[in-house]
């Protein structure tokens, strides 16, 4: 009988292959997990009463690997960044947040309700923004779960830095400037504080295949 961790890992390996067809490479997923871990640890250090236990941190990092799982319900053709998108295309793309949250309990019920709740929050709300300019619900301020804010920030950081299909990539200094100054939607004061304090760790983090140095590998890897 395989363990819970093995079961989770096997599902993740299968999903990673599928997500790559939709523009989310395994490399992007692991970078988002790594950045999420750095930010979550800093959040826990800054807010010791917020309940960022080792178990919660591990679940959030695992959830970071699932943040775009809903893209599996989006037509592959829409993953081509250089194509012209209609209003309906944009709606389908943005709907990946809702679709992802619906998939979680079907795939990961064996991990327990608390884990599924964190994953659903991440899937559904990682594109929400502090000023209410995000989607799918336009939530703002404290209505956005912390885990979704952490993963959303990690996702933006990697997208800006490594520039997936058809997008410009920026230097680490420019990425930091853009995020801190609301160029990609306003961050909460708490997320700004986490990013500011964790700036060096974020800028030196590398996956093993990309060079030596930086933070450790994600806890869920």
Describe this structure in words.
The protein has helices spanning 4-20, 26-46, 54-64, 87-94, 96-108, 113-125, 146-162, 172-180, 189-197, 199-204. With 221 residues, it is mainly α. The protein has a single domain, classed as Hypothetical protein af1432, CATH 1.10.3210. Residues 212-218 have low confidence and may be disordered.
Query: How many whole angstroms does the radius of gyration measure?
Result: 16 Å
Using the coordinates shown, work out and report the CATH topology.
Answer: Hypothetical protein af1432
- Separation, N- and C-terminal Cα atoms: 21 Å
CATH class: Mainly Alpha
Domain count: 1
Name the assembly state: single chain
Average pLDDT works out at 87
Low-confidence stretches: 212-218
What is the SS-derived class?
Answer: mainly alpha
Number of helices: 10
Shape: globular
Q: What is the H-and-E element order? A: HHHHHHHHHH
Q: How would a textbook summarize the main sheet?
A: none
Strand content: under 5%
Report the count of strand segments. Answer: 0
């Amino acid at each position: 009988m395989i363990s819970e961790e093995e079961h989770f890992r096997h599902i993740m390996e299968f999903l990673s292959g599928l997500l790559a067809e939709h523009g989310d490479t395994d490399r992007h997923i692991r970078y988002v997990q790594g950045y999420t871990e750095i930010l979550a640890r800093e959040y826990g250090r800054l807010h010791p009463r917020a309940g960022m236990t080792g178990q919660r941190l591990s679940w959030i990092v695992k959830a970071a690997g699932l943040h775009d799982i809903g893209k599996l319900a989006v037509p592959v053709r829409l993953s081509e960044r250089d194509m012209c998108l209609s209003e309906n295309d944009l709606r389908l793309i943005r709907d990946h947040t809702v679709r992802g949250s619906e998939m979680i309990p079907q795939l990961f019920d064996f991990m327990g309700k608390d884990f599924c709740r964190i994953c659903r929050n991440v899937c559904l709300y990682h594109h929400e923004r502090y000023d209410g300019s995000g989607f799918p619900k336009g939530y703002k301020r404290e209505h956005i779960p912390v885990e979704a804010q952490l993963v959303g920030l990690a996702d933006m950081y990697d997208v800006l830095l490594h520039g997936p299909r058809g997008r410009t990539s920026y230097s680490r200094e420019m990425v930091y400037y853009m995020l801190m100054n609301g160029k990609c939607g306003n961050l909460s004061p708490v997320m700004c504080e986490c990013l500011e304090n964790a700036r060096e760790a974020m800028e030196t983090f590398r996956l093993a295949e990309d060079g030596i140095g930086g933070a450790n590998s994600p806890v869920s890897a």
